[in-house]
Amino acid sequence: YPNHLSRAAVISSLQSSPASPLQQFYAYKWVFAPYVLSDIVLTALLRVMPVFPAGRVFLLLVFFAPVAAFAVYARALDLSRRGVMLAACAALYLASSWFFLEGFLSYQLGFAFVFFALAAREAMQRSKCLFALSFAAFIAALLGAYLAHLAAFFFLAIILLMLELSAFFCG
């Protein structure tokens, strides 16, 4: 977490002030690569608030992202309200895992995007009239998983492969 926050503060300083004293030591170029989503979100937050409040907001976002993702996925599976609440509570328990407590925020954020993508996939299969919107949500979640953490992108690919193989072999 401190690494994410300090890197975002440096990036924000480089972007906001061409005369920043950090210009002589650092340079930053945005690239489309894994692990950059935390930088993007924190840098955006730093445009509207100071460093430590931005860090706290980011921590809350990362903590509750899996909860929201599990609830959305449970809803996409047409679970009852009780099932959705149970999924959200299970995600709340998982959100307080070792990964979060040790500061592996990109991993946890990627984990949430996996379930957002699965929810969008489920919506694509269930509703033909909302296919375009569901497909756009799936692509956004896929990009989010990739930009958050490479492991999330690969976990999502493996889960999707397993789902397609089970549909092929089991009908």
Question: Would you mind describing this structure in some detail?
Answer:
This protein is mostly helical and 171 residues long. 77% of the residues lie in helices and 0% in strands. It contains eight helices and no strands. The chain has helices at residues 2-16, 37-46, 51-76, 81-95, 98-101, 105-126, 131-148, 150-170. Helix 6 packs antiparallel against helix 7 (131-148).
Encode the helix/strand succession as letters: HHHHHHHH
Label the overall shape. Answer: elongated
- What radius of gyration results from the CA coordinates? 18 Å
| Strand residues, percent | under 5%
Going by helix content, strand content and strand pairing, the class is mainly alpha
Write down how many β-strands occur, each being a DSSP E stretch of 2 or more residues: 0
Taking the sheet with the most strands, its summary is: none
Task: Please give the oligomerization state of what you see.
Answer: single chain
Number of helices: 8
N- to C-terminal distance: 45 Å
Which stretches are poorly predicted, pLDDT < 50 over at least 5 residues? Answer: none
Helix content: over 70%
Average pLDDT score: 89
